[in-house]
Amino acid sequence: MSKFSKVKRLAKVLFRNPALLNIILEQNSAYDHHAKNLGFEDGLPVIDILDLSTDFDETIEYYSLLDGGSLISDLALIKKITKKYFEANYFEIGTWRGESVANVSGLAKECYTLNLPTTELQSLGLSEKYIGQQDFFSKKINGITHLKGNSMNFDFSPYYQKNDVVFIDGDHHFDSVKKDTETAFKLIKNETSTIIWHDYGYSPEKIRYELMCAIIEGTPKKYRENLFHVSNTMCAIFTTKDYPVYWLKDKLLPSVSFTINIKANKILSKQKKSFFAKK
């Protein structure tokens, strides 16, 4: 059985029985030894989110509070970093519902987001309901260019050395994350640019060692000392700026308290319109 066939079969199995994901999560320990060999057994050094930005105050829109999305703090981090650049160019790998790119669209001069084409999602055995969620929030926003392709073989060359912020949130297997990381360092303008990886952790306090090892291996050796985890998020970043750091294992008490004002806005989807019409 080819590697692609195995991945396709696994996707079908997990989609039908999500509980099996727990077994896969337990395999996180298998990368512990690899992390030690790379010299990162304690994970990446952590930047306190308020050291990264003392005025950390953001409003998040286009947020579903559904499975598979980012934390509120993750999206706020992406917005805060994008704001640091004048007329930023933003590129992301992995659109999903389009929440991340929709939130930065008003801050960046140009936004590009890459996702698998519908035909490839169908070939993985994913349901039409799942596929229909792709770019839900971003598809109608001006200034966002939706690219379709597989990041393992997509031609990124037209976008090389043009981006201030690159966000990586595509396929989370080791080989894909490593390849996307290598691509990200070609996409950034220079050393003042920032790369953000989502799902560096299963949570803000639990490292996802498979992804961390892939990020490290995909990063040029001269830049590995510039990789960090941002506290209170599931994100890792590349930055050449100097910040005080600590190690996740040494953190005992919360250092940040968030104030959140939550407001829900009604969305009447086509599916619901059809349902009410029948009534």
H and E string? HHHEHHEHEHHEEHEEEHEEEH
The domain count comes to: 1
Determine Rg (CA atoms, Å): 19 Å
Distance between the termini: 48 Å
Give the count of helical stretches.
11
Average predicted local confidence, pLDDT: 90
| Proportion in β-strands | 15-25%
Spatial arrangement of strands, main beta sheet: 4-3-2-5-6-10-9-1-11
The SS-based structural class is: alpha/beta
Which bin fits the share of residues in helices?
25-40%
Number of strands: 11
Write a brief caption for the model.
The chain is of the alpha/beta class and 279 residues long.
What does this structure look like?
The chain has 279 residues and is an alpha/beta fold. It has a single domain, classed as Rossmann fold. 33% of the residues lie in helices and 15% in strands. It has eleven helices and eleven strands. The chain has a nine-stranded mixed beta sheet with strand order 4-3-2-5-6-10-9-1-11, with helices on both faces. The protein has a two-stranded antiparallel ribbon with strand order 7-8. Helix 3 packs parallel to helix 10 and helix 9 crosses helix 10. The longest helix has 14 residues. It starts with a helix and ends with a helix. 34% of the residues are buried. The C terminus is likely disordered.
